[in-house]
Write a structure and sequence with these properties.
- The complex is a heterotrimer of chains A (234), B (328) and C (289).
- Chain A is built from ten helices and ten strands.
- With 234 residues, chain A is α/β, with parallel strands linked by helices.
- Chain A is globular and about 45 Å long.
- With 328 residues, chain B is an all-alpha fold.
- A two-stranded antiparallel ribbon of chain B has the order 1-2.
- Chain C has one domain (2-121, 134-279): ABC transporter involved in vitamin B12 uptake, BtuC (Orthogonal Bundle), CATH 1.10.3470.
- Chain C is built from ten helices and two strands.
- A two-stranded antiparallel sheet of chain C has the order 1-2.
- The longest helix of chain C has 35 residues, at 2-36.
- Chain C is globular and about 60 Å long.
- The chains are: A alpha/beta (234), B mainly alpha (328), C mainly alpha (289).
- Chains in contact: A-C, B-C.
- Chains B and C meet through helix 4, helix 5, helix 12 and helix 14 of B and helix 4, helix 8 and helix 10 of C.
C-alpha cells in the first residue's frame, strides 16, 4: 500500500533521511523504531507531505505523492496523527473530531464516523463538549487518534504516541492501537518505546541517524543485538 | 568618523554662504530637522520598540511651545523645556504599563497609535485655544524690520536656521552614537531578542526600555518645537496623528532602521521624492504625487525591508566578504 | 428635570445604536487579526472604498439601494482578498512590523488614490431618512437599521464560525496552523476566505455608515483609530471583547457629546482607553501573550 523508494530529505543544510526504503502492505501494522534524532518524525512528515523529499519517491497504492500538495494527502487515505497530539486546545473534543472529517468524502459520512470513534473511545463521548486543552495526556492522545480516524483512512500514521505520557497511560495507548488494528486499519507507528511498540506490530524498521539499519519481524528484532544496542543507547 | 566625512561635513556647513537661495536652504533645513526627528524615533525602533505614536510627542512639542508663547508670552526658552517635560511624562505614562506588562508587537503599535490620535483630537477639541484643525501661527516677534528675536527664537533669515538645524541633526546623530556605544545598547538588544532571559541576567527590562523611550520622546518633542519655530505654522495633521506617525516609521524603514545615518537617508529620500513628485506631477493632477508616493512605500516594505542603506551595506558586506553585519 | 432625563435617555439609546455599528466595524478587524495575526491598518480605508462604491452606484448610476449595497459589500470583500493576496502574503513570513507597515502604506495609498479619483469633496447619499418616534424620543431610522443589521451580522458570523466546517477550520487555524494540512485544510485558502469575510464585514459596515455620514478621502481617519482602540480595548482578536468594548466606547462618545461638545465625547473615550491600557493593557478579555 505505502512504499518509500530511496527517499532522502532534510532541512536547509541538515539532511535527516538518507536513501530510506520501506513499505507497508494493506492490513499490516509496521513500526519505525530508533533513538532520538534518528529522523523518525521527518519520515512521517515526508509521507504526509509536510516536507518535500530531496530524492526518491513516496507512493500510496501505486500513486506517487510527489506532486500532491500537503492538504490533499488525506484524500489519498493517509491520516497523520502528529507528535505531541497537537489538538486544537480551544476547540471542544467533538469539534476536534469534526475537523478530522473535513474532506468532503469524510463529511458525507460524519455521523457514522463520529459514532464509530465514540464507540471505540467512550471516554471521548463523555467529554465531547470539553475543551481539548483541558484533557489529560492520555485522553488527548485518544482524541488525537480519534481525530485521525474520522476521515476513514486507509493508512494511519502515528507519530510517537507514547511521548510525554506516564508508563501506565502508555500501556493504555498501545492497547488502543491494538483495538484499532482489530478493526482492520493499516498502521505505521513511529516510536522510541521499542519494547511496547514491538508488541503490537508484526514488522519493524530500525532507523538510525537517517538510515535504515535493520528490519524484520518484531520477534526477531527484539532478540537481535542491533536493537539491544539502540535500546541501551537511548 | 573618518576624515573624509569631516571634510564633507565642513563643506556642507559652508553651503548657506554660497548664496544658494531660500528654496534650497528650505529643503536642506527640512531634511535636517526631520532627520533629527527620525533619528530620535529610531532610538526605539532599532530595538524592536516600534512606536506608531511619535506624532503625539511631536505635537506636544510644537503646540505647548506655541501655546505658551501665544497665550502667556512665555519665551520658547522656557516653553520648550516644559514641552519636553510633558512629552516625557506622557511617554512614561504610556510606556510604564506597556513595558511592565510586556506589551509588544501589534498591541504596542496600536496603543501608541491611539496615543497620537488622542493628542490630535485634544488639539482639535481645544479649538478655542489651539485654533483647531485650521492650525495656528506663533505670534511673530519680527515686527518693524527686525530680522531675529532671540526671546521668541524666530529668525527671518533661513541661513540662521540652517545652522540651527545642522546643529540639532548632528546632535541627534551624537546621541545615537552614544547610546550605540553604551551598555544600554547591549541590554536593549538582549531584550529585543528574549525578554525573560534578559531579566534573569539582571537587566531591568522595564527601566531600560523606559529610559530609551524617554530620550526618544524628548528629542522628538524638541524636533516638533523646532519645526514650529521654523515653519511658523503648525496644524494638528502635520505635527500629530496617525499619518504623521506612519510618515516617521516609513522614512526610517526606507532609509534603514539599524544604521546611524539610515533615518537621515530616509528623510532625504522621502522628502526629495515627495517634493520631486509634487513639482513634476502635483500641479496637474491633484493627489497623483501622493498616490505614487504611497505605492512606492508599499513596494519598499515588500521588496526592501532593510531600507536603502541597509541594502547598500548588505551589498558592501557581500563584496568585501565581511562576516557581517547589516547593523552598524 | 424631566426633559433633561428624556434627552439623556435618548442619548443613551442613540449610543446603543451607535455601539452596534462600531461593534460591526470591530468585528471584521478582530476576525482577520484573530485568524491571520495581521492588523489591517488600512481597514477604515477599505470601508471608505465600500462607501464610495455605494455612493456612485446609487447617486450616479441610479442602481437601487439594496443592490448597490450588495455590490458594495462584494467590492470590499474582493478588496480584502486582494489586499491579503498581493500585499500581505509576501510579508507574512517576515517580522510582524512589516505587516503593520505594509498595510499602513496601503492606508496612505488608498487615501491618496481616493483623492486622485474622487477629489476632496464630501459626498452624501442625500437620503434623508426620517427619525422614529418613541414617545418623546427621536431615534434616527438609519441608526436603527445600522444597529439591527449589525446585530444580525454578528449572530450570523457566530453561527457560521461555530456550526460549519469552514468556520471551525477558521477557528482552528489560529490555534495550530502547522497541522491544518493534515486535516485536509489548505491554510492559504483559509486565509483568503477569512480576508473575504473580513472585507465583507467592512463592506457591510460601509453600507450602514454611508446612510448617515458623508464620504470623503480622509473618512478613514474618523473611524479607523476608534476601531483599533475598540479592538485593543476588548482584547485583540477577541470578538466578544470587541463587542463589549464597542458599546462602552459608543456610550462614552454619546454621553460625553451630550454634556460637552461632541469632540470631547471622543476625547473622553480615548482617555478611557488610555486609562484602561494602564490598568489592563492586554484588553478586557485579552490574553497576555
Amino acid at each position: 500500500m505505502l512504499e518509500l523508494k530511496s527517499v532522502s530529505a532534510g532541512y536547509d543544510s541538515f539532511q535527516a533521511l538518507f536513501d530510506v526504503s520501506l513499505k507497508v502492505d494493506a492490513g499490516e501494522a509496521v513500526a519505525v523504531i530508533g533513538p532520538n534524532g534518528a529522523g523518525k518524525t521527518t519520515l512521517l512528515r515526508v509521507i504526509s507531505k509536510l516536507m518535500e523529499v530531496t530524492a526518491g519517491e513516496v507512493s500510496m497504492e501505486g500513486v506517487s505523492l510527489n506532486a500532491v500538495p500537503a492538504h490533499r494527502v488525506i484524500e489519498l487515505g493517509i491520516a497523520h496523527v502528529p507528535e505531541n497530539r497537537r489538538l486544537f486546545p480551544r476547540l471542544t473534543v467533538e469539534e476536534n473530531l469534526r475537523i478530522g472529517a473535513y474532506p468532503p468524502a469524510a463529511r458525507a459520512r460524519y455521523p457514522e464516523r463520529l459514532e464509530f470513534v465514540y464507540s471505540l473511545f467512550p471516554r471521548m463521548q463523555e467529554r465531547r463538549d470539553q475543551l481539548a486543552g483541558t484533557l489529560s495526556g492520555g485522553e488527548q492522545q485518544m482524541c488525537a487518534i480519534g481525530r485521525g480516524l474520522m476521515s476513514g483512512p486507509k493508512l494511519l500514521l502515528l507519530d510517537e504516541p507514547s511521548a510525554g505520557l506516564a508508563p501506565v497511560i502508555v500501556q493504555q495507548v498501545f492497547a488502543l492501537v491494538q483495538k484499532i488494528r482489530a478493526e482492520g486499519y493499516t498502521v505505521l507507528i513511529v516510536e522510541q518505546n521499542i519494547q511496547q511498540v514491538l508488541k503490537v506490530v508484526e514488522r519493524a524498521y530500525l532507523l538510525e541517524v537517517g538510515r535504515i539499519k535493520a528490519s524484520g519481524k518484531s520477534a526477531d528484532l527484539l532478540a537481535s543485538d542491533d536493537i539491544r544496542r539502540a535500546y541501551i543507547g537511548l | 568618523m573618518n576624515r573624509a566625512a569631516w571634510i564633507a561635513l565642513g563643506l556642507f556647513a559652508l553651503v548657506p554662504l554660497l548664496g544658494v537661495g531660500d528654496y534650497y536652504l528650505h529643503l536642506a533645513i527640512t531634511i535636517m530637522l526631520w532627520s533629527f526627528v527620525y533619528t530620535s524615533w529610531s532610538l526605539m525602533g532599532r530595538f524592536g520598540l516600534v512606536s506608531f505614536g511619535h506624532g503625539a510627542f511631536l505635537g506636544i512639542g510644537a503646540y505647548i511651545t506655541t501655546m505658551l508663547w501665544n497665550h502667556y508670552g512665555v519665551t520658547p526658552w522656557i516653553g520648550i523645556p516644559l514641552a519636553l517635560l510633558l512629552a516625557v511624562a506622557v511617554a512614561v505614562l504610556i510606556g510604564y504599563p506597556c513595558f511592565r506588562f510586556r506589551i509588544t508587537g501589534h498591541y504596542f503599535a496600536l496603543v501608541t497609535l491611539a496615543l497620537t490620535e488622542v493628542v490630535r483630537m485634544v488639539i482639535v477639541a481645544l479649538r478655542d485655544f489651539t485654533g483647531g484643525s485650521l492650525g495656528v501661527t506663533p505670534d511673530i516677534a519680527l515686527a518693524g524690520g527686525k530680522s531675529f528675536s532671540l526671546v521668541a527664537i524666530q529668525f527671518a533669515h533661513k541661513e540662521v536656521f540652517f545652522y540651527i538645524a545642522l546643529a540639532f541633526w548632528l546632535f541627534g546623530l551624537y546621541v545615537w552614537r552614544r547610546i550605540d556605544r553604551s551598555m544600554m545598547r547591549y541590554a536593549m538588544e538582549a531584550i529585543s531578542q528574549e525578554e525573560d532571559a534578559s531579566e534573569s541576567v539582571g537587566i531591568n527590562v522595564t527601566r531600560t526600555k523606559l529610559i530609551i523611550t524617554m530620550i526618544s520622546a524628548a528629542l522628538t518633542a524638541l524636533g516638533g518645537a523646532l519645526y514650529g519655530q521654523y515653519q511658523l505654522y503648525i496644524n494638528p495633521d502635520t505635527v500629530s496623528g496617525v499619518a504623521l506617525s506612519l510618515q516617521i516609521v516609513f522614512a526610517v524603514i526606507a532609509g534603514g532602521m539599524f544604521v546611524q545615518l539610515g533615518p537621515t537617508v530616509g528623510a532625504a529620500f522621502t522628502l526629495l521624492l515627495a517634493e520631486g513628485l509634487r513639482v513634476a506631477v502635483g500641479h496637474e493632477v491633484h493627489g497623483l504625487d501622493s498616490t505614487i508616493y504611497g505605492l512606492m512605500l508599499v513596494l519598499f516594505i515588500i521588496y526592501m525591508p532593510n531600507g536603502i542603506l541597509g541594502k547598500v551595506l548588505e551589498a558592501r558586506a557581500r563584496n568585501t566578504g565581511a562576516a557581517g553585519a547589516v547593523k552598524a | 428635570m424631566e426633559i433633561f432625563d428624556i434627552f439623556l435617555l435618548e442619548t443613551v439609546l442613540n449610543g446603543l445604536l451607535f455601539g452596534g455599528v462600531l461593534a460591526l466595524l470591530a468585528l471584521g478587524l478582530n476576525l482577520v487579526f484573530g485568524v491571520i495575526d495581521v492588523v489591517w491598518i488600512c481597514y477604515a480605508e477599505l470601508v471608505m472604498i465600500g462607501m464610495y462604491a455605494v455612493y456612485f452606484l446609487y447617486t450616479v448610476h441610479h442602481v437601487p439601494l439594496l443592490i448597490a449595497f450588495v455590490i458594495g459589500i462584494a467590492t470590499v470583500s474582493l478588496s480584502g482578498v486582494a489586499l491579503h493576496y498581493f500585499i500581505i502574503r509576501p510579508v507574512l513570513a517576515s517580522e510582524p512590523i512589516n505587516q503593520l507597515l505594509v498595510t499602513g502604506g496601503m492606508l496612505f495609498f488608498l487615501q491618496a488614490a481616493a483623492t486622485l479619483a474622487f477629489g476632496v469633496q464630501f459626498r452624501n447619499l442625500g437620503l434623508a431618512l426620517p427619525s422614529v418616534r418613541l414617545g418623546e424620543i427621536m431615534l434616527p431610522q438609519s441608526r436603527i437599521y445600522a444597529a439591527g443589521t449589525a446585530l444580525v451580522a454578528m449572530l450570523g458570523l457566530a453561527l457560521f464560525l461555530k456550526k460549519t466546517y469552514l468556520g471551525t477550520a477558521i477557528r482552528a487555524i489560529s490555534q495550530d496552523r502547522a497541522i491544518m494540512p493534515l486535516m485536509g485544510v489548505n491554510p492559504s485558502r483559509i486565509y483568503l476566505i477569512t480576508s473575504a469575510i473580513g472585507g465583507g464585514l467592512a463592506g457591510l459596515a460601509a453600507c450602514l455608515l454611508v446612510l448617515q455620514y458623508d464620504v470623503h478621502p480622509a473618512i478613514g481617519l474618523t473611524f479607523g483609530p476608534i476601531t483599533f482602540m475598540i479592538c485593543v480595548l476588548g482584547g485583540l482578536g477577541n470578538m466578544l471583547g470587541g463587542f463589549i468594548a464597542a458599546f462602552i466606547f459608543a456610550q462614552l462618545i454619546s454621553i460625553g457629546g451630550f454634556f460637552f461638545h461632541i469632540e470631547w465625547g471622543y476625547v473622553m473615550a480615548f482617555v478611557f482607553f488610555i486609562v484602561m491600557m494602564f490598568i489592563r493593557p492586554q484588553g478586557l478579555l485579552g490574553r497576555k501573550s
